[in-house]
Design brief:
With about 325 residues, the chain is of the alpha/beta class. The protein is built from eleven helices and 13 strands. Bound molecules: oxa(dethia)-CoA.
């Protein structure tokens, strides 16, 4: 009997402080109109100073454990996806493990930026299918508001990003029902690494930290927005088509498409290219901004809790981001 990876519980956590476009107008040269028209974003959440990414992940994890109706001691592995860890090292997986007070189980950090959730899901899927672990806690969390450049130079990035976290409990499904993860497909092209990156601090510098580094402002994330946009609208449909082909499905079989929430114009263009009705596309970027690795699972959880996603529905996830990395996953809910 084949084993599939089943999503036993899911939840998310957004820090309570809401930053509207009007709030951003007060701290950087931008307008609500520009942000709405170019991105579809109306507001995003910012964590307060003193809060770390692992704190957001922990809050989401507590809620996912409750949703799964398990005891936290059943968790036998942690996978954490983030590009904004509390520390340069160690990653946030071990911090979440400590906050939850779990036994000395393994904790793995995944660094694949906007594709981080699907990469993490793919790793979890292999561990579950090979029966290595029985209850994996997957957290995807980002806290980006503390390192955005709200000056003219960084306003393209600063308009987009928000903070948030999501968590899943994954376990084997031994029944023939086939509910769970049907496939994951992962891609990358490192030739485009410099198109979307936070360049500093860098191991290439000796010493790594210097006044010069701070003055260069290259410790803020930077992006060539047009190149990222162009590649995103090409690669996400390709990844979805690879997933559909692999599962002998067509786009008509898909009940919900959840694209990484990078820019609402990107999501709509991906839908158009795939010829999927826009009603089937889950979009929450207007309330969250781009929460990088956390964006897909936050959107997934919201759609589940709203009753929009029902048992048996076919869901396709797709992401694109820094690396470049991109990915897709198919889930039977
Ligand atoms: O999740 C990771 C992946 N990230 C993405 O997928 C993001 C992909 N890229 C994008 O979403 C878009 O390229 C942006 C939203 C970042 C920019 O939209 P765009 O339509 O490509 O704008 P643009 O780069 O052509 O900029 C147009 C103008 C520029 O002014 P000039 O040179 O035409 O005078 C920018 O300086 O908009 C200006 N601009 C802004 N104006 C007001 C850039 N950022 C802002 C801002 N507020 N925040």
């Amino acid at each position: 009997m084949s084993v599939t990876t089943f999503i036993k519980g899911i939840s998310h956590f957004l820090p309570p402080r809401i930053i509207t476009n009007a709030d951003l107008e007060k701290i950087m040269p931008t307008t609500d109109e520009w942000i709405r028209q170019r991105t579809g974003i109306l507001e995003r959440h910012y964590a307060d100073p003193g809060i770390g990414t692992s704190d957001l992940a922990y809050e989401a994890a507590l809620r996912a454990i409750e949703d799964a109706k398990i005891d936290k001691s059943e968790i036998d592995f942690i996978i954490a996806a983030t590009l904004s860890p509390d520390y340069y090292f160690p990653g946030i997986g071990v911090l979440v493990q400590a906050k939850l007070g779990l036994n000395q189980i393994g904790a793995l950090d995944i660094r694949n930026q906007c594709s981080g959730f699907i990469y993490a899901l793919s790793v979890a899927d292999q561990y579950i299918k090979t029966q290595t672990y029985k209850k994996i806690l997957l957290v995807a969390a980002e806290l980006q508001s503390s390192n955005l450049d709200h000056s003219y130079d960084g306003r393209d990035m600063a308009a987009l990003f928000g903070d948030g976290a999501a968590a899943l409990i994954l376990e084997p499904n031994h029944s023939n029902g086939g509910h769970g993860i049907l496939s994951t497909h992962l891609f990358s092209d490192g030739r485009f690494a410099s198109e979307l990156l936070m360049e500093k601090p860098s191991s290439k510098d000796n010493p790594v930290f210097s006044q010069k580094m701070l003055e260069s402002k290259r410790c803020f994330p930077r992006m060539n927005g047009k190149t990222v946009f162009k590649n995103a609208v090409e690669k996400m449909p390709e990844a979805v088509n690879a997933a559909l082909k692999h599962n002998n499905l067509t786009i008509e079989d898909v009940d919900h498409l959840i694209p990484h929430q990078a820019n609402d114009r990107i999501s709509l263009m991906v839908a158009h290219k795939l010829k999927i009705p826009v009603e089937k596309v889950i979009r929450n970027i207007h309330r969250t901004g781009n929460t990088t690795a956390a964006s897909i699972p936050i959107a997934l959880d919201e759609a589940v809790k709203e009753g929009r996603i029902k048992q048996g529905d076919l869901i396709v996830l797709t992401a694109f981001g820094s690396g470049f990395t991109w990915a897709s996953a198919v889930i039977r809910w």
